[in-house]
Amino acid sequence: MNQSAMNRERLSVKRTPKGGVILRYARRLRGYTQAESAATYGIEERTLRRWENREFDPKWNDVISLVEDVYLLNILEVIGKINDDNEHND
C-alpha cells in the first residue's frame, strides 16, 4: 500500500465520540432538558451537566443506559449520526 492510500485509510477511520458528546446529542435529539433526563435516570442535574460539558467523563454503562433506557435510542445509531454530522461539518 502506498503512502497516499495509507493516509486516505487513516482519514476514513472514525473515532468514537466522548460520552458527554453522545449524551448531549441524544438528549437534544429527543427534546429532553437536562433536568428531565437527570430525574428520569436518578442522578443530579449538575452531574449530567458536568458530563455534557466534558468536565467529567461518564462511565460507559451510564452513557449506554441513558441513551438506550431513557432516550430510547440505539447507542450505535447515535454514534453513527454524530459521525455523519461531523463528516458533513468538516
TrEMBL record:
SUPFAM superfamilies, A to Z: lambda repressor-like DNA-binding domains (SSF47413)
Origin superkingdom: Bacteria
InterPro entries: Cro/C1-type_HTH, Lambda_DNA-bd_dom_sf
Name by which UniProt lists this protein: Transciptional regulator
The organism of origin for this protein: Pseudoalteromonas aurantia 208
